[in-house]
Write a structure and sequence with these properties.
Layout: E1 3-5, E2 11-17, E3 22-26, H1 37-43, E4 48-52, H2 69-83, E5 88-93, H3 95-106, E6 111-117, H4 125-140, H5 143-154, H6 157-162, H7 164-177, H8 181-193, E7 207-212, H9 220-229, E8 234-238, H10 245-248, H11 250-265
Parallel strand pairs: 3-4, 3-5, 5-6, 6-7, 7-8
Antiparallel strand pairs: 1-2, 2-4
Length: 267
Amino acid sequence: MPHVTVPSGAELYYKRVGAGPPLLLIMGTGLDHTAWQRQIRAYSPHFECILFDNRGAGKSTAPPGDLSVKAMAEDAAGLLDGLGIASVHISGLSLGSCIAQEMTLARPELVETLQLHGTWGRGDGYAARKFRAQIALIEKMELRDFYNINVLWFLTPEYMDRSPEKVERRIESILRAAPSPEVLVQQYRANLGHDSLDRLGAITAPTLVTVGSFDTAIPPMYGRAVAEAIPGARLVEFAGGGHLHNVEHPDEFNTITLEWMLGHAQN
């Protein structure tokens, strides 16, 4: 299995699919690279998709010590350095979007374009209460029981009603790749501590922000605040979409994001 050892000591599993300009895909809390599966089919004819598992998730290792979004951004940049890639298009979802923010702020020369899906710039208010609740649940129950509850935040009632088998398969897939409870708690604490809102004005890369109108994990007001803070950012709202609107509305998501990337890749 291909791995790159980054400066933190984490061994990051990665996968390269497709041909064209490099596109780094960064997934969210507790999820591995396979959550991008529906996007890879659309993107890979046009971009070389670089997928990886964040430290402790999937096939990547987690070094000891505290975890922060900035540390995970350093991991992602270390992966690119290890692969000898000078610049990429970046797409991040949920925690992955926060990692993408910090990576863009710390290493702007690496970033051609930036996509932030289900994002936030400060873990306060509703988001802070939810993150603390998720930490408390992980500390009190088995991971399967946790995800049976957690899915209520990141998938919509309509999707659950329409596709109950897919929901069950999604939970099983998450459990197979999930970090240990200890690392998962660290990731949620990193979510809680993320605070970039006052620094986002320094981002100059073309930026696309997407939100789901029915996102109860990170309500759309958080994404709107991020879009307002980044000069020239484009905001797209998926009507009825949840936190994982890339999963629930893959065709619409792929069309919008691919057209946007191709437009900027050709400039």
